[in-house]
Amino acid sequence: xxxxWHAEIIDEVEGEHIGWRSLAGSDxxxxxxxxxxxxxxxxxxxxxxxxxYAPPAGRxxxxxxxxxxxxxxxxxxxxxxxxxxxxxxGAPLT
Length: 94
Prior knowledge:
This protein has 2 helices and 4 strands. By secondary structure, it is α+β, with helices and mostly antiparallel strands. A 4-stranded antiparallel β-sheet has the order 1-2-3-4, with helices on one face. It is globular, with a radius of gyration of 15 Å.
């Protein structure tokens, strides 16, 4: 299945964080933020993501998404890993 959601940025401080929430009519109701902090050790930036969402079909929908590896936690972890590799390598994503 494919779900579509539209969001708006509700809070943003350049270089620190971005906050968003889904718009009315989205298939998935969500809100979250991404925070950027200077790394404690060495150069770089630590990125922290928080997400709240109400999955379609409630808890059952969440469990099914987890079993299929399509839950937001797994997707965010994989997306951040790809982003890290891209930033560190400078190579285009494939």
